């Protein structure tokens, strides 16, 4: 499958080919060679341990900003700390503005290469897309120039066995060199990294890692469904704790209905349509995900031959 870049991405890509020539006038800042990975976490206990383990052999350091987790995220990190071949910094910051969190993480990194990683990204640790090969590629690039790299990511949808139809692949500038002029800013409902004009954009057209996405517990999904609206409308100014905002929204929309039932309805609205993951089309799963395939916590269910719900939802609960 070929990923189709947006018009904005295409324009920026072709412009960067020429503007990168000017990087000659901007010598690289004095930073250690190597790769810093920055991760923002808030209630990511489901996958953070596996995600960190998949970075072995790739990262030189990992900077984690804990954005007020109330689940076992930090405990899950500590469980694997001794199994990691890179040092971890953990900083606590409950600021609800993710741009502030991202900029803080960016400043805390110390290596020339920066990778913005999510706690539900799982890298390949073997095979042709082994993340160690990505490390070798990055460190081989001209150390006197600036690069903004778009890796190709496969997003799972609903469970570990499906992808969202029409949105199977994703690509963003998750990898780049550090420069003090770069900054995360808000654009619409999302945050974007504003990079200096002299960066060259590189596209990697092979799947570099998996994004678990919506293959998470129903409570995590409920949080996700309301999170974008909470941020887009700056509702965090009124409700610093998103859980309070969710309670208000749910009551306005559904009254005193069961939260799991509400999540089931929104699951069908936002996650569907899905189709089965095809190994022949996308390749094999990352090694660290394979044990999870044997005993999944939930699976999408079918009705009349079509995706219908998920095993952890009780469809008999009415509103």
Summarize the topology.
Layout: H1 7-19, E1 32-41, H2 48-53, E2 61-66, H3 73-80, E3 88-92, H4 98-108, E4 111-117, E5 121-123, H5 131-140, E6 147-155, E7 162-164, E8 169-171, E9 175-177, E10 183-187, E11 190-194, E12 200-211, H6 218-232, H7 242-254, H8 259-270, E13 274-276, H9 279-282, H10 290-294, E14 300-303, E15 306-310
Parallel strand pairs: 1-2, 1-4, 2-3, 6-12
Antiparallel strand pairs: 4-9, 5-12, 6-8, 6-9, 7-13, 10-11, 14-15
Helix pairs in contact: 6-7, 6-8
Order of secondary-structure elements: HEHEHEHEEHEEEEEEEHHHEHHEE
Low-confidence stretches: none
Shape: globular
Q: What is the tally of beta strands?
A: 15
Tell me which CATH architecture of the largest domain applies here. Answer: Alpha-Beta Complex
> What Rg, in angstroms, do the CA atoms define?
20 Å
Tell me the helix content: 25-40%
In percent, how much strand structure appears in the residues? 25-35%
Which fold name corresponds to the CATH topology of the largest domain?
Spore Coat Polysaccharide Biosynthesis Protein SpsA, Chain A
How does this structure look, described?
The chain has 319 residues and is α/β, with parallel strands linked by helices. It folds into 2 domains: 7-211, Spore Coat Polysaccharide Biosynthesis Protein SpsA, Chain A (Alpha-Beta Complex); 218-310, no CATH class. The protein is built from 10 helices and 15 strands. The protein has helices at 7-19, 48-53, 73-80, 98-108, 131-140, 218-232, 242-254, 259-270, 279-282, 290-294, and strands spanning 32-41, 61-66, 88-92, 111-117, 121-123, 147-155, 162-164, 169-171, 175-177, 183-187, 190-194, 200-211, 274-276, 300-303, 306-310. Strands 1, 2, 3, 4, 5, 6, 8, 9 and 12 form a 9-stranded mixed beta sheet that branches. Strand 1 (32-41), helix 2 and strand 2 form a beta-alpha-beta unit. Helix 6 (218-232) crosses helix 7 (242-254) and helix 6 packs across helix 8 (259-270). The mean pLDDT is 92.
